Amino acid sequence: MIPLTLAEVASATGGRLDAVADPAVRVTGPVVTDTRELGPGGLFVARQGEARDGHDFAAAAVEAGAVAVLAERPVGVPAVVVDDTEVAFGRLARAVLDRLPQVTVVGVTGSSGKTTTKDLLAQVLEPLGPLVAPPGSYNGEIGVPLTVLRVDESTRTLIAEMGARGAGHIAYLCGIAPPSVGIVLNVGSAHLGEFGDRDTIARAKAELVEALPETGTAVLNADDPVVRRMAEQTPAQVVMVGESVHADVRAEDVALDAAGRASFRLVTADADARVSLRLVGEHQVSNALAVAGAALALGLPLDDVAARLSAALPRSRWRMEVTERPDGVTVVNDAYNANPESMRAALKTLVSLGRPAAGRTWAVLGEMRELGESSIAEHDAIGRLAVRLNVSRLVAVGDGARAIHQGATLEGSWDGESAWAPDVDAAFDLLRAELRPGDVVLVKSSRDAGLRFLGERLVEDK
Description:
By secondary structure, this protein is of the alpha/beta class. Helices cover 34% and strands 22% of the residues. The chain is built from 16 helices and 22 strands. The strands form 4 sheets. The protein has a 9-stranded mixed β-sheet with strand order 9-10-8-11-12-13-14-15-16, with helices on both faces. α13 (375-388) links the parallel β19 and β20. The radius of gyration is 23 Å and the shape is globular.
């Protein structure tokens, strides 16, 4: 973060200083919500969580190097006291960004693919100068300010991943980090239980392009009709990306290699270039096109964009993370999160990775959460899809995923088999007894279902 005095922090957040001997003392280190990440000159944001109250760690934060604490009450150490630390945190981030007009903000949203797209963007946009991108999935009211407060005078590009669990969330995040470029990847079923219907999800995602200035650029997925219609909701220039005829930046001649990695021709109105992705899954083409649209809008040459997309590597854990064990079993750990759209994409990738002559394909699937009243039907449909794709073995894990097994059982006869395991340990025991060289195992579920740790155990069980 750029250095700020505690007086300036108080002014930016609408707070007051408490137990501060010198208001001119500067915050020169990291701004964090976890005392383990503190360094000399840092600022600790005391959050009231469900299980812990950050105010209880105020003294430890100062001992770890913090010059002060952003808090909602006096804490016995130097503090900037505010009414609401979350709101104040966002205000502080906006105040810092307002002091750095050279920073271009690229916002990314969508029901799925945000983090992978953010990781690709960070690698493709590097030629534009020093860049800040969120680690992992920092995409909410805390994650976005944490990301923003990593910028400094040298930063030229800030990538902000923006998630939403309700109307107004993305608009709020855009108030913290006003975007010049906004990417909307898709509108699917993620958080359907909280939003109620896809129309409401679409309106929430559209808040990103509505926040763009006339001089900005909206990068929209032309293959998603709902996203395509958002062109009518933004004052910015629109760049359509996809495989459809509506796309300004298109993928043509898409093909997958034996490892499930896509290659294609990246085509614009003026030229084309070859791209060979190092990420697994055909669905990565859509993410890559969104990145290309943004990069081209920011002035990068087509050949450079294609080359950097081809060189880009996965950066975030548990997202199509492919490991081949010494015994010949391949584990695909894609269990950071799941919704019906990403589950379908993962199953299709599994089938493309399968080597029928050598082994079997295993789909080890847990619950997709936050689907509301459609949950049973959506899980049932995934089980039926596994049958239609002729996955060799299906293992549904946990009570929430039982409908996946039931759907597969009711779909009809196929060459494979379906089983239900009550928990991760039971699933691990089943797989450990059954896996053999040449098998490919997909592990996927929503994050809270815990299957990413099952994937790790399978990798380590050599």
